[in-house]
C-alpha cells in the first residue's frame, strides 16, 4: 500500500513527531508499505527522530512564519502556493491513503485536493478548553471547521473523552502506540523525572512547589526536567527555583532524543500538566516499568494509567493529594517496584503491533 503522511516538520521534539516516526517506520520496515512523508516547513533541517531509509521525504518549502497566525497576511498569501505544490505531489504519487498529522492551513484544503484519494485527519490535542466559542468570529470559524471535518473520510481521535467535541460521525478511536522496552527501571535511585516542552501547559512550576513541600522529608531526592524551552518559560521557573534554594535538587536537563533509555535512571515519573490528550511520554514510562503520578487533567492520563496499579491518578488541581501520594512513592521502593512490574504489563495494551493493526483495518475499510 502507498501511504502518504502530511505534517509541518519533523525536526522539533514533540509527541506528533515521535509518534509519526514510529508509525511510518512500522509501515515501511515491518509491513513493507511504500511510505512518503511530505512537510512544508522543514527548512532543510534534520529530523529529530530516526526515520527508515525506505521512507521518501519531501519538503514543499512553503515556510510559513510560525510566530504569526496562519491568518496573518504574510501566511495567507502562501496558501495558494501550498495547495498547488501539494496537488502536484499527490497527482504524481497517487497514494492509496493520505494522513494529515499536524494542524496547519492545509487542514482546510486537503480534502479537495485529488478527491478520489481517501483523506484521514488525526488529532493530537484536546478540545476540552477550546470548544466554547466566545465571539462571532470564533463561531463562524468553528462552523467552517466542522464542515471541513465532515469532508475527511475519517477523523482519528486518541481517546473516547474527545468524542463530545466533534459533530461529525466519521471518527474512530486509535491510541498512540509504544514499544515495550527489553529493559526495566531499577527504581532504586532518588530521582524523579518529568518531560515535555517547558510551557505553561506542562505546569512544571506546580511540580516545583509540590517538590518543595516534600524535600524536607526526602533531602537526597532530585527532580529532573527534560524538554525544550518555550517563550522563555524556563527562566521564569528558574527564578523561583533560586528563591526556594533548590538549584541542586530541581534541575533542567535539556533535550534527550532517547527518552526511554533516559527513564531507566529514574524511579518516578511526575506529570502536573494542565491538559493532555494522549501523552506519549506516559506510554514510554509504562514501557520501561516506571511508575507514574499524574493529575487527572483533561483528557488523557486516566486513559493510560491504571490507578493504584502502575501509578497514581490525582484529582485535578489537588496539590495536597499529589504531595501525599508522591511522598508515598518516594518512601516505598517496594511499592515502586510492584507498580513498575504492572506498568510493563499494562503497556502491552498499546504495543505497536496492536495499534498498527487498527490503522491497517482503517486503511482497508477506506480503500476497499
TrEMBL record:
InterPro entries: Glyco_trans_1, Glyco_trans_4-like_N. It comes from the Bacteria. Keywords: Transferase. Residues 189-345 form the Glycosyl transferase family domain. Residues 14-149 form the Glycosyltransferase subfamily 4-like N-terminal domain. GO terms for molecular function: glycosyltransferase activity. Pfam families: Glyco_transf_4 (PF13439), Glycos_transf_1 (PF00534). This is Glycosyltransferase involved in cell wall bisynthesis.
Amino acid at each position: 500500500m502507498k501511504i502518504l503522511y502530511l505534517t509541518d516538520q519533523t525536526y522539533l521534539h514533540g509527541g506528533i513527531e515521535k509518534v509519526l516516526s514510529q508509525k511510518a517506520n512500522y509501515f515501511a520496515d515491518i509491513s513493507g508499505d511504500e511510505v512518503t512523508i511530505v512537510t512544508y516547513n522543514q527548512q532543510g533541517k534534520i529530523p529529530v527522530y530516526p526515520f527508515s531509509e525506505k521512507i521518501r521525504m519531501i519538503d514543499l518549502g512553503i515556510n510559513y512564519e510560525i510566530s504569526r497566525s496562519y491568518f496573518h497576511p504574510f501566511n495567507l498569501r502562501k496558501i495558494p502556493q501550498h495547495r498547488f505544490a501539494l496537488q502536484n505531489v499527490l497527482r504524481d504519487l497517487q497514494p492509496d491513503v493520505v494522513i494529515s498529522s499536524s494542524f496547519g492551513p492545509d487542514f482546510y484544503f486537503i480534502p479537495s485536493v485529488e478527491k478520489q484519494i481517501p483523506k484521514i485527519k488525526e488529532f493530537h490535542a484536546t478540545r476540552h478548553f477550546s470548544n466554547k466559542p466566545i465571539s462571532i468570529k470564533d463561531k463562524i470559524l468553528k462552523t467552517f471547521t466542522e464542515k471541513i471535518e465532515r469532508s475527511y473520510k475519517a477523523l482519528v481521535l486518541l481517546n473516547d473523552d474527545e468524542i463530545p467535541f466533534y459533530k461529525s460521525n466519521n471518527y474512530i478511536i486509535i491510541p498512540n502506540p509504544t514499544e515495550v522496552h527489553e529493559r526495566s527501571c531499577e527504581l532504586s535511585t532518588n530521582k524523579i523525572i518529568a518531560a515535555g516542552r517547558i510551557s505553561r501547559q506542562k505546569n512544571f512550576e506546580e511540580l516545583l512547589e509540590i517538590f518543595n513541600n516534600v524535600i524536607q522529608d526526602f533531602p537526597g531526592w532530585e527532580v529532573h526536567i527534560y524538554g525544550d524551552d518555550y517563550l522563555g518559560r524556563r527562566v521564569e521557573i528558574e527564578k523561583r527555583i533560586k528563591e526556594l534554594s533548590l538549584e541542586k535538587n530541581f534541575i533542567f536537563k535539556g533535550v534527550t532524543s532517547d527518552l526511554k533509555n533516559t527513564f531507566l535512571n529514574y524511579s518516578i515519573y511526575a506529570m502536573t500538566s494542565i491538559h493532555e490528550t494522549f501523552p506519549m511520554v506516559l506510554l514510554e514510562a509504562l514501557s520501561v516499568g516506571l511508575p507514574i503520578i499524574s493529575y487527572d487533567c483533561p483528557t488523557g492520563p486516566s486513559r493510560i494509567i491504571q490507578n493504584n496499579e502502575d501509578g497514581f491518578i490525582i484529582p485535578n488541581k489537588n496539590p495536597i493529594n499529589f504531595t501525599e501520594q508522591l511522598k508515598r512513592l518516594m518512601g516505598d521502593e517496594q511499592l515502586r517496584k510492584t507498580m513498575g512490574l504492572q506498568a510493563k504489563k499494562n503497556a502491552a495494551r498499546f504495543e505497536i503491533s496492536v495499534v498498527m493493526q487498527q490503522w491497517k483495518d482503517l486503511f482497508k475499510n477506506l480503500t476497499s
